[in-house]
Amino acid sequence: MTRAEVLGWLREDDPARLDELWRRADEARRRVVGDEVHLRGLVEVSNHCVRTCAYCGIRAGAPVTRYRMSPLEIFECALQATALGYGTVVLQAGEDFGLEPEVVAETIRAIRKHTPLAITLSLGERTDEELAAWREAGADRYLLRFETSNRALYDRIHPSRGREPSDRIAMLRRLRALGYAAGGGVMVGLPGQTLDDLADDIAMFARLDLDMIGLGPYLPHPATPLAAEPRPAWDSELMTYRMVALARLACPGANIPGTTALATVNRAEGRELALSRGANVLMPNLTPTRYREHYEIYPDKACLRETADVCDGCLRKRLHAIGRTVGEGRGDARREARSEP
Length: 341
Ligand code: SAM
Fold this sequence. Notes:
Elements: H1 3-11, H2 15-32, E1 36-46, H3 71-83, E2 88-93, H4 101-114, E3 118-122, H5 128-137, E4 141-143, H6 151-157, H7 168-177, E5 181-188, H8 195-208, E6 212-217, H9 236-250, H10 260-265, H11 270-275, E7 281-282, H12 289-292, H13 308-321, E8 325-326, H14 334-339
Parallel strand pairs: 1-2, 1-7, 1-8, 2-3, 3-4, 4-5, 5-6
The protein binds S-adenosylmethionine.
S-adenosylmethionine binds next to loops.
């Protein structure tokens, strides 16, 4: 796809033409990654964070109750993921250096030893030594959205710490070199974001040859500085579906989730619409309910109070209703599957 074509689709408002985009993306999804929807059990292991991202409700200093799960609590969530038949557990947190590298490595080793799960980390910008140690301990994948490929916008919303500038695109390349399957992604509808930026994001997904691509609408959190800034005039939910479809066409083999942010803006059918427009993954939340409300990256998150069993039943019913099946096994991206001996 040329840049002009991508921009054409991003500007497209005619429902009949958009149906053609959804059809093409859905066809590519079915042909390349099939009808299976892989379920990744998401565990929000800590909401401590040292960063001051202008968009995020758990940024340093934000008025939330902080928590950090113990290794045993995390391990129990991994057992629950296994019991529910999921192939992957995703350990996500704010950038929390209280998650000590060796404790994280021990937790990864325990999950590795006692479950068949693939392990995905999403712990922010950590040192190469830490990333290498966690990979060595058995972590398979790392999710690190670069949020926007517009460097000036990124610097404004995601301030660097100390003297080293934050460079998530460089870090994604290092993760790949360390042997991780790499997941990037962006928020859609950020103040100051343009359609040109979104076209650049699609080109960046392809250039990085990502294994996973996370796309969600930006949802303002009232306790953050970005919430006061005007957002683009376009509908960020619809624009996110356009991005999901274009990401599928640009990176046909990638794993692309129907994100919780989409389910939050459209509780009735956000996930289903993403799944029928290019997505092939869902991330049910396994975080113990007593912690979940404190992982408030944006307000009024979908599925905040339902227990894991209830969420699981609901998602399976929704998948069945749209004619999709639950994926068996780890649900590796095609590259991971190819690289297996
Ligand atoms: N600390 C890790 C990191 O920064 O990659 C993982 C946790 S971070 C909260 C996960 C993702 O949440 C971010 O990459 C960002 O895209 C998304 N996020 C944070 N605040 C958001 C908001 N207000 N609206 C939509 N998505 C948001």
